[in-house]
Design goal:
- The protein is α+β, with helices and mostly antiparallel strands.
- It has one domain: 3-Layer(aba) Sandwich (Aminopeptidase), CATH 3.40.630.30.
- Helices cover about 30% and strands about 25% of the residues.
- It has a 5-stranded mixed sheet with strand order 1-2-3-4-5.
- The longest helix has 11 residues.
- The chain is globular.
Length: about 130
């Protein structure tokens, strides 16, 4: 296993990883990922041999808040602790933040095990696409 921070992965592998979990479709392409990475503060890649099997990213101001986004583990490599490791390593990159936030649709139990909890406010979203 190899772990790398902020070193852009092979974008074809990243595209395939996103597609493997159903997050990107045939309209999304390499330039979409290039733009995404160029606007991300911190990201982590985990490789088995030379294959990208997990990816996570964090948007942060390094003071008030950080937002974990796109914690992605290939289905064939789940239940190995890779997601937890990525989250802990990303959070360690911004030790002074007061709040770490995220949005999840079906992994609430996983995140609760890492200490996350629901907040009293109602999350709102503006979906543009």
């Amino acid at each position: 296993m190899r772990v790398e921070f902020n070193n852009a992965p092979d974008l074809n592998q990243l595209l395939e990883l996103y597609r493997a979990v159903g997050w990107l479709n045939s309209r999304d392409n390499i330039s979409f990922l290039e733009d995404m990475l160029s606007h991300t503060n911190e990201f982590i890649c985990i490789y088995m041999e030379d294959t990208l099997v997990a990816f996570g990213r964090m948007l942060t101001d390094y003071r008030m808040s950080a937002f974990l986004d796109d914690i992605v583990v290939h289905p064939g490599f789940r239940d190995m602790g890779l997601g937890s490791m990525m989250i802990n390593k990303l959070i360690s990159k911004a030790p002074g933040v007061k709040k770490v936030k995220l949005t999840t649709f079906n992994a609430e139990t996983f995140y609760r095990k890492l200490g996350f909890s629901k907040v009293s406010s109602v999350p709102l979203e503006l979906a543009k696409n």
